[in-house]
Design a protein that fits this description.
Two copies of one chain form a homodimer. By secondary structure, chain A is an alpha+beta fold. Chain A has three domains: about 1-145, Creatine Amidinohydrolase, Chain A, domain 1, CATH 3.40.350; about 160-300, Creatine Amidinohydrolase, Chain A, domain 1 (3-Layer(aba) Sandwich), CATH 3.40.350.10; about 300-590, Creatine Amidinohydrolase (Alpha-Beta Complex), CATH 3.90.230.10. Helix content of chain A is about 35%, strand content about 20%. In chain A, strands 4-3-2-1-5-6 form a six-stranded mixed β-sheet. Chain A has a six-stranded mixed β-sheet with strand order 12-11-10-8-13-14. In chain A, helix 11 packs parallel to helix 12 and helix 14 crosses helix 15 (about 335-350). The longest helix of chain A is centred in the middle third of the chain and has 31 residues, at about 300-330. Chain A is globular. In chain A, about 50% of the residues are buried. The interface of A and B includes residues 448, 533 and 557 of A.
Chain lengths: ~600, ~600
């Protein structure tokens, strides 16, 4: 199937004199999860992971992705000519120097400009220009081959009520308008679906796992234009929009209208989410900055923080019931990883305001836990038995917030010394970073290593960042703050600020053997102000027990033991009012205090 | 005096229609320490620190420098109109946005292109161009006013023997030539005095504290041209140069010869040290890269590492004798900080191959210890008495290496809880970073915070990086590796590699009260290789006791106590063979093991 598709693409490339065609994972909004219409890379490669780029020439089909996906690619592309090329740095465009090295002088690369940011095209041209390699915008070649390509999203749009958002669209728009005036510009243009959903307090289900609406937005001082199909709005929503001087233009008319609408004026935008087709339309009139919406959105207001606490409580209830079910059920029978994921979803579905999962649950038994973004299929899932180790990373979308939690549990039998040592080092890393106090101005790259130091001590490590921002009924991976080993990602280069929600999730993975990860959502807050400035720290919000069977208790410090006991007392106290007596007893046992011998 | 100089400069600026004149601290080689000829900023501002930029307009004389120098500027510029502007980030060109904001449209900024790198001019133009502010190259304006300006250095040049360097010039040049061929270029051009001294194994004393030779070098496959005054070479050196196909051209003919010498060919260089006047000469033919010499030089060979150990041993002997002298002498009388610095120099002078200090000794008593780059003058020095706290940061140049060490000692009386708490936190920070094991690929910014975490815990911090590379009879601050809080400096952005020499030097400062800093030189080396790659760690080389009077022993961990006892045993063992029995007894007491109560 993949072979046929690649053959068809190559035939078309030959016809159009294209020597290489690059297919990224993105949509025209540089989204992480994309609508089915934009799953072009998956269509041509078979690889379904969320990050990766396919480069096709007449004799190669090179799939570039990072270490999180190496095992997944090996499985999904096993029977095709698609070859894995390993990125050293996640999301880095390492395929570009390689491709331009591979291609002859005076050749042609085809790309759909809509799927590439300006920075990506600039970087590509840096390597292409010296060899006189031309870039050719190709927006139709895929449609020619992909006959049953899914159409653009058309579901109804819902208002995300102010009881959840804590701030009206009018208030958010006024902040954007202040920024336009402060910069003496004419307009602010938004491409990021996540920022548009936040700004207009609208949600829908255009993409998997994230309640976003496919749109562009152009804000000026007097009015606002939302490029989005009008049929998707109710009469009531249209009325509200009208009151806010918001006009609705059809989504696909943005390129046509933008030049005239903004004539002669400066337009502020974030080039990280701007696609190259739109950049081209009014190129030199754009002013680039880190999106004001992204900056505002990253600081949660009190309603959003309360919402996060509410949905995390619901998540905690669901997870407790789920782990009780799992513990009992696996004593009776083997259960597939897929069924476990479905059951976890079932428990979340019982909770108020749940609308779906925030990503595909990762249920990785033994060696599958080492596949960092593993997603068991109904057919291919492993059978989980009453022994060994199980990693579960999952999250929900609730109208009051978005969750993301990982726990690794021991099902039975005797854990190896390696597993216990690694689990303990991962837990110690989580505690070290979560308990750190640091000055305002500190970026993610400066403190990421606190989560790794205990692993490093033993010559161990994990091949992913240590955490990411999380949205409010928005993206599970929300820019910009987080923890990473380099400043090539915003998670490394961004300063942590009070009232942000971020995950801390160190791990440890041994291919084919096991995976360990422990992940909580933490709230950043001011801890003290001294002569040396303001200091911040993290408060854990996630409510779920941490399996103590895998801990080498005597290699914890007094402070670490105290942290664990305090955390478990907090989990038990918060969840108990929502549990039956039997459930409470079960949880109380999981949460019982440990002590050094 | 400063007023007169500024008046004369402003008169000249008016005559030449220059609205603002920028005077940096650099020479045409972007050196840290510069020859007297280039001390232009000090001449016009009175500020003698090593980093800072003076911006002069008709109504302002703005001195931009970083927090290390705030107190020094306040003192040195107290009686002039020179105003301190505080840089938030050391060395960041924060004066440029400020200046271009201050100036009207269509004005003129004068600068001596030789004192600015290409990156600095580019950055300046970024802000100047939108307001149509012109840059005017002014290489003579200073000479007009500074009648007794010191001439260019002319002392004899010495060969730095291979028994010290461990590698011949021929071998080093062949590596540069390989790089030229690898890059298919014609030439490699060097501007950095430190790289030139390393590459040609030559030394002199052109600048303060660093045994450098003022020169440029142009390497091609067949021959090498050294731009340097020929009179400075002995017959023997000229003969050696000739055997290596090295030709000597006069230093000040570089701009005249470079275009013709390199005609039509690509020239690799490092734009960090290249000045804009030279860049302009053959602009588009330069290829920029991090200097190969800098990269090679940062990895010490076994002779250099042995040399470092030898001169550190000599330093340790000198310091021990010095601290014994100080302890006895201060019981008898008050001693000025200046005399203490002189005496320390005296003890270093007794050691073989000592040629001078690697920077002006910092002897800071009580509040003066809080001035991070304090340098007591003969007249203004404080009198040190037999009580309170004293910070001493000093280093020597020996033919076998360069040293840099800081110790903070308690002279007598009862230390406050704050001082003990801070001293203990600084020591714990030193130990945490020095004892860290980390994967190959780790940059300075990722691990700098380990030296700060114990201070951060108490809402404390220090306003400088945590360490820097150090040369081999070269620069005391050698690029590129180190530890810093951001990647705007190479010390933050550079990966640590095996066989590098780096300082670790956390501190704590309370203005007008006291300063604490503990600094050792450490050698980076491979500790283990696992499935997760190669891991590195640091070995402390510096040999000097750490004052234990100021430690809150019971707030150390078992591991920290063990580290201190092991370190002290090592110091005592290495130094003892070189001490008298009396000196040994004194040191044995300072080094005696501590234990938790």
């Amino acid at each position: 199937m993949i072979t046929e598709r690649l053959q068809a693409l190559r035939k078309e490339m030959l016809a159009q004199n294209i020597d290489a065609y690059i297919i990224p994972s993105s949509d025209p909004h540089q989204s992480e999860y994309v609508a089915d219409h934009w799953k072009v890379r998956a269509y041509f490669s078979g690889f379904t992971g969320s990050a990766g780029t396919l480069v096709i020439t007449q004799d190669k089909a090179a799939l570039w992705t990072d270490s999180r996906y190496f095992l997944q690619v090996e499985e999904e592309c096993a029977n095709s000519e698609v070859t894995l090329y390993k990125q050293t740095i996640p999301h880095a465009p390492e395929h570009i120097p390689w491709l331009c090295e591979t291609l002859e002088n005076n050749t042609v690369i085809g790309i759909d400009f809509r799927q590439f940011s300006k920075a990506q095209v600039d970087y590509l041209q840096e390597f292409a220009t010296p060899k006189n390699i031309q870039l050719q915008h190709e927006a139709t070649i895929v449609d020619t081959i992909w006959k049953d390509r899914p159409s653009m999203p058309s579901q109804p749009i819902e208002e995300h009520l102010v009881v959840f958002t804590g701030e009206t669209t009018a208030s958010k728009l006024s902040k954007v308008k202040n920024e336009i005036q402060r910069q003496k510009a004419g307009f602010y243009f938004f491409s990021s679906l996540d920022e548009i959903a936040w700004l207009f307090n609208i949600r829908s289900n255009d993409v998997d796992f994230t309640p976003l609406v496919t749109a562009y937005a152009l804000v000026d001082i007097d009015k606002t234009i939302l490029f989005c199909y009008k049929e998707r709005f109710s009469e009531e929503l249209l009325q509200q929009a009208s009151e806010l001087q918001i006009e609705i233009y059809a989504y696909d008319t943005v390129l046509e209208h933008l030049p005239a609408l903004t004539a002669n004026q400066k337009v502020i935008t974030d080039d990280a989410s701007l696609n190259y087709a739109i950049f081209n339309a009014i190129a030199e009139r754009f002013i680039f900055q880190n999106s004001i919406a992204q900056q505002l959105k990253a600081i949660k207001n009190s309603v959003e923080i309360e919402g996060a606490k509410k949905c995390i409580l619901k998540d905690g209830i669901a997870l407790t019931k789920f782990f009780i079910w799992l513990e009992k059920e696996v004593e009776k029978r083997s259960i597939s990883e897929y069924e476990i994921g479905e059951k976890l979803t079932h428990f979340r579905q019982q909770q108020a305001h749940y609308t779906g999962n925030s990503f595909a649950p990762i249920v990785g038994y033994k060696g599958n836990g080492a596949i960092i973004h593993y997603s068991a299929t109904k057919e291919g899932a492993a059978l989980v038995q009453n022994e060994g180790i199980l990693l579960i990373d999952s999250g929900g979308q609730y109208k009051d917030g978005t969750t993301d939690i990982t726990r690794t549990i021991w099902l039975g039998g005797t854990p190896s010394d390696t597993i216990k040592m690694a689990y303990t080092a991962v837990l110690k890393g989580y505690i070290s970073l979560e308990q750190l106090q640091f000055p305002l101005g500190t970026t993610g790259v400066q403190i990421d290593a606190f989560a790794r130091m205990h692993l490093w001590k033993h010559g161990m490590n994990y091949p992913h960042g240590t955490g990411h921002g999380i949205g409010s009924y928005g993206m599970v991976h929300e820019p910009a703050q987080g923890f990473a080993t380099s400043t090539t990602t915003s998670r490394g280069s961004t300063v942590h600020l009070p009232n942000q929600l971020t995950t801390i999730e160190p791990g440890y993975y041994v291919t084919d053997e096991f995976g360990i990860r422990i992940e909580n959502i933490v709230l950043s807050k001011v801890t003290q102000t001294t002569d040396f400035g303001t200091f911040l720290g993290f408060e854990p919000l996630t409510l779920c027990y941490v399996d103590t069977t895998l801990i080498n208790i005597d290699s914890l410090t007094k402070e670490e033991v105290q942290w664990l006991n305090t955390y478990h007392a907090f989990v038990l106290q918060e969840l108990t009012p929502h549990l039956t007596a039997e459930e409470h007893n079960w949880l109380a046992d999981k949460c019982k205090a440990i002590s050094l011998s």
